[in-house]
TrEMBL record:
Name of this protein: FAD-binding domain-containing protein
Native species: Streptomyces incarnatus
Gene3D superfamilies: 3.30.70.2450, 3.40.30.120, FAD/NAD(P)-binding domain (3.50.50.60)
FAD-binding domain location: 2-334
Signal sequence extent: none
UniProt keyword terms in alphabetical order: FAD, Flavoprotein, Plasmid
Amino acid sequence: MDTDVVIAGAGPTGLMLACELRLAGVDVTVVEKLAERSGESRAGGIHSRTLEVLDQRGILDRFLAEGELQPVGHFSGLYLDFDESESRHPYPLMILQSAIERLLEEWAAELGVGVRRSSEVRGVHQDEGGVTVELDTGGTAPATLRARYLVGCDGGRSTVRKLAGIDFPGTEATMTALIGDVELPGLPEDYVWVRRTPHGDYSAIAFEPGWHRVITSEYDHVVDRDEPVTFERLKESLTKVAGTDFGIRNPRWISRFNDAARQAAQYRAGRILLAGDAAHIHFPAGGQGLNMGIQDAVNLGWKLAGVIRGQAPESLLDTYHTERHPVAERVLHNTRAQSALVRPGPQTDALREVFGSLMVFDEVNQYLRHLLNALDIRYPLDGDHPLVGRRVPDADLDAPDGAGRVHELLHAGRPVLLDLCGSAEVAAAAKGWADRVDLVEARGEDDHWTVPAIGDIPAPGALLIRPDGHVAWATDDTTPHTPSLITALTTWFGPALQG
């Protein structure tokens, strides 16, 4: 084997997955067809759950230093409020994708991950022992890499997905949007967000001093995917939609997108897996795509590492599809709704007015913000406790190693068995997994924990936290039922050590 895992694509999803695998001691090679980072920044924000994920790995401060927190969000341009009790990081962070990729690549380099650029996947052959990946590196003959697994993180037009024969069903585009980072000297306002007109809508967002991100959307107009994207076309579109081009000039880059929504029929085909846009594409309403891709990576990384290390059965990889496919289905569903809500016309005007009047109700506001920030996701895990399957709240702790809150326990990317009641039964059960699960005995600072979509619940007595921050087992008892704990440990982290 040349490496344990080949990751195709050095975007946010691929880089995050590479870091997760390296934290787990797995050898990984990232291949990227581009010779260097493009500088394009289609995405421009990080939501609460992704901020928590970065916090769980101890790298959040790097991102906060380069972005700007926003106290409000939106659903199809209709503003949402956020609840500070739900997370330590309730607000979206405005930060360009180019900065996100650079920071993740720097972290990957610190962990020993290299990116092989100018290396495009051209062929894939898998067998019982592994995967052979053929690469076009610009040479006279294709290079090859032999790995145990291949993960396609190579975007919506994923070559890996096509070579694996995985279907990509969904709905066709009904509109065309143009996006570019430009100078906009004639804009009378600093910030324009989803301004609707009879001809479409436009936005102008100042991410950096002197530069605006301009987005125009024209509905019932779909161009051929191979039609060139030009600065003149962006000027024409902005003039059509807004009535003026505001003196637009000096484009850094121009691109195009639409509201096509597709999802891979399966996220795994043998030794080939998909993550990020390779697994799902959608209208970028609410900036959910990049966030979902990073969360895909964090769900998959520890599972793939456990299988490669021989500590977990290969069937564990099937839970990646089981858990993440429904999450993407929900995102495709809500982005289709957002696309419909922003279309021009008096019928949509009336619909937005009614919809906006409903958003003043706390329950509606909460439901919609959870569609965006993913704090309410509950995976279908066995267990009756309200925490099981949900992301663990970042509760305050007094731990012997100095950790002051739960998420600090996850910096190493290892599972944590957190004992808050000093149970001898929990400690005894943990011995069989001492090589792969960290037992932490601590004292909780709060009697109740806040769980999004539920509210306050009594602080648990003990809980098993997966490396992705989701709870695999929890109990309120001071004398826990250890057979259920042992079942959870075996299910997620393989059989106990013998002897």
